[in-house]
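hey so u asked for the seq, here:
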Amino acid sequence: MDNIVRAVYERDADAQRARRLQWFREARFGMFIHYSLFSQVADGEWCMSVENYTKEEYEKYARTFAPKPDCADEWCRTAKEAGAKYCVLTTRHHEGFSLWNSKVNPYNSYNYCGRDIVREFVDACRKYDLRVGLYSSLMDWHHPDGWKCAFDPDARRRFTDYIEAINTELLTNYGKIDILWYDMPYPMQSSEGWNSINRNNRLRQLQPDMLINNRSKLQEDFLTPEESIKPADGAYWEACMTFNGISWGYLDPDQAMPYSYTPQKIITMLNKCTANGGNLLLNIGPSADGSVPSEAIEPLKTVGNWLRENGEAVFGERPIIGGRYTGCGVNLASASADQKTIYLWNRIWPKNGEMRLGGYMEAPRRVTLLATGEELSFTLDGHRLFIHGLPECPTDKYAGISVIKMEFDSKPAFENMSYYPHLRYGDNIAGDLVQ
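ran it, structure tokens below
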């Protein structure tokens, strides 16, 4: 096996990173799909491990695995209707069951139910014009070397060869793949233990345009904060979020419903990702037969309807603006790539027909309601921008989050707390006085 020096590999990967990331940076919104044997248990995707199933006990779920026809089509149709631009499927979760016709891993869906779910998923993604992401766990509870590899050199060699072989199948059997989404690099603690540089180098040769995430103990193309929208300095990132804050896998919908995200919560997450330079990867956990969980259907449809009217504020290249340009906590904001256009996402609509925005030190040339194009009047008074003549109620008929579009001749001069500098200086004021 040829050794690829880390510096050389990273240099070559860095040289093409901006090109590979271009579509991803514009996509902003993807759907994660956690589906496998654990979907039958309805007790979380880690149930095999945390509930101490023996392998023999857990294998009964492979014998009863029976996805309904066209379940992958339903996932991707739902993603498209929600406004997502790409999907990522758990092709093999930690339980070790492969969802394709694998020659390397006989513990797979084709051998148990005659179905290549990965093929169905890839075909459905292409049908609905969605980019294709394949999740691939490094951890494997079913493989005999899955834990021995941490301390047994022979087991490590066998297991890393196995990991490369199954990923080679995924990247050679299904045409162009856009994302290889690694997960759980345990029990080994380093990229050297996983032979990640050599493996990823060879896999990239199979799919030169493919993005790889950071979970093989290398930073690679993008970082993956989990259950947290946490911007990363100096690297692109994607926040992966469950639909309920509890589980990635299927749960009883009646019990999961009170914890599930509303359209307003999902749109707020989209804003935080957009304003901070990242993507949102929102998960669904299909049921045992592959049906989209019932509690997710209406919220996702609502988000899709909202994006059809307000997607201009979400999709495409976006600068990192954080909390700038907002009006108190009731509003969120995003900006065009050149920051000449500011989009205010109004979660709470003013009741007096007027909106007051502090911190703007120059007036826009035009203000409109994004969804309708209706022009709004405005005045600038000091560091205060007043928008007049607003409708009595939110104009957004889907989620109640109406977007106001403000167009400037250049990036607007803006200063947080411009009349009240307390937050700009904080403790430094006292320090300066003492000195």
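The first strand starts at residue 29 and ends at 33. The longest helix spans residues 6-27.
lmk if thats what u needed
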